[in-house]
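Question:
Now give any protein.
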Amino acid sequence: MQIKSFAIEQFFARYEFSSPYILCASDCETINVETLLRMAGQSLSDLGALSLSYTESQGHPALRQAISQGYQLATADDIVLLATPEEGIYLIMRTLLEPGDHVVVLTPAYDSLLNLAEHVSGNVSQWQVQPGDSGWQLDLSQLEKLVTADTKLVVLNFPHNPTGFLPSQEQFQQILTIAQKHGAWLFCDEMYRGLEFDSRQQLPSAVDAADRSIVLTGLSKVHGLPGLRSGWLVIRDEQVRNELINWKHYTSICAPAPSEFLAMAALRAQDQLASRSREIIRQNLIAASQFFDRWSRLFEWRPPQAGSVALVGLNQPSATAYCHALAQETGILLLPSSCMGYGDKHIRVGLGRADFVRNLAHYEEHLLASQK
């Protein structure tokens, strides 16, 4: 059975490695292996001595123990290491869903959060983030209507990609209560958790806030290490965890040994890495806000509340056509909202790269030249 095209990744495959001015990346500025090891108090010789043998299917016990320290209720036994964060989405959908099971997905969304649910269950309702006058917002009354006794799974993503929306603590609790009332499972993509602009806004991990919850996270966004491909699931339900690990035996079997080694180094240096990412975003957000204020006739700017991305309204007939032409003619890369299943009137902007201000200045030069 065919699955929908992965629009985001197909767009990036076409342009990401040939465009010199990327303005839509979702990850944060990365570092090299030597720098990571130095931050963690290790050397390249430590990595060189690593045996390239198979690893444990669930993940190295010491790494799982280190990861569990980031949660209040999870233990090392609740952690499942992945070969890539993307694998976790596939494994969850295969483990929890049967054809016909009802799923509610927060949208717009990263393709696989929506498309894999549709592929497996064929019965998905979208709960859409709504544009407001000064920012993005959620309609909790709509969620109340969507989630019923027949709902098997509610898929969330906070901080939200692509809008940068973050619910309040009260809103988050209401969402959990709605799901719990109907006995639905919660699957929360927390890849951007840790990139809140105000630490007091950080939500508790869903796995610490609701019993029937599963969390996905990793090192690509907050830590700025997407090339490491390191991620994990937190699953406190033993039966579901064992069933998922059985599915994992049919995908990657185990995580790569170098990824586990470097993931442990990243956890030792995570305060430095996360602080660095947040500071880059903070500086880029100032530049972005000033830019969109100057170009308010072309863009509708709703500042993100957290994370490394923002969804910006575009005053053009087609965001898709605009982004393709921009990439092909100028090497400037913006992601159209059509790739995220959200119409054709928005673009995603990425705020986590160190060259954002330079690239934005180049884009502004293009806009000014286009007016002449």
